[in-house]
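Entry 14: structure prediction run for NUDIX domain-containing protein. Input pasted below.
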Amino acid sequence: MGIRNSAKAIIIQDNRLLAIKKRDEAGGYYILPGGGQEFGENLHQALKRECIEEINASVEIGELLFIREYIGKNHEHAHFDHEIQQTEYMFLCRISEDSKEIGNGINPDDGQIGVEWLNISELLEHQLYPQTMRQFIMNYSAGKQQPVYLGDIN
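Run finished. Output tokens:
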């Protein structure tokens, strides 16, 4: 299997982070909106498409905040992710003013049950993946300097 590129949205508004809520056999958890880049798309096009599909919102894409790699065999979900290798590009985004009904979009992720705003100050209390990102997002929101490249984290 090849390496997959993915574009993710970090949407912060009123000290809250917009996240997709998912459920699997282990229970509920959260992920950032966004997903895989398709052939012929650039990262911005992929992110805009994914946000419409998943959160029913057009986004304005800002700066690249983080680059995260995920090599599945190195992490706690290796029993089912061992063949996955993905590079995620996480952009600061704003929801476009013409997007009024934030919620499940036209093509939600498998297991997606909703979209929620999570308080930044409470991110460590939520099972948000990648879990290491919770502290980076909290630090960014507090104005602390953060590295762009985060390496192979979950």
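Notes: DSSP finds three helices and nine strands in the chain. Will compare against the previous run tomorrow.
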